[in-house]
Amino acid sequence: MTDETTPDVPTDVPSAASEPTTPEQIAPLPVPMLRIIEVGLAAWVVALVVILAVPALHEGDRDWWPWTCVAGFVLGAIGWVYVWRGRGNASDAD
To answer: What's the rounded Cα separation, in Å, for the pair 52 and 12?
Structure first.
């Protein structure tokens, strides 16, 4: 008879707790953050050009759409400067 709260574990298999294991050091993947931010900046510029080129996208209730692109570009530029100066470098974090 088995208890429903405990799984059926074979008794002839050694348990994982009997052998001490040490976690291996996992090296972080190199991520080109500046390149990622630059692609985002380019996407905001393309979106702004498209919105300004199509009058229906920036008139009436959508008159705030170009400002969204401008804000995205400005915030992305601030982020680019932050990472470029090295403050966004995770390897220097304590």
So the answer is: 72
pTM above 0.70, yes or no: no
Backbone angles phi, psi at 40, to 5 degrees: -65, -40
* CA–CA dist 94, 92 (Å, integer): 6
Annotate the chain with DSSP letters as a single string.
---TTS----TTSPPGGGS---PPPPPPPP--HHHHHHHHHHHHHHHHHHHHHSGGGSSGGGTTHHHHHHHHHHHHHHHHHHHHTTTT-GGG--
> What does the pLDDT look like over 6-21, one tens digit per residue?
666 556 655 555 666 6
Span 49-67, pLDDT tens digits: 999 999 999 999 999 999 9
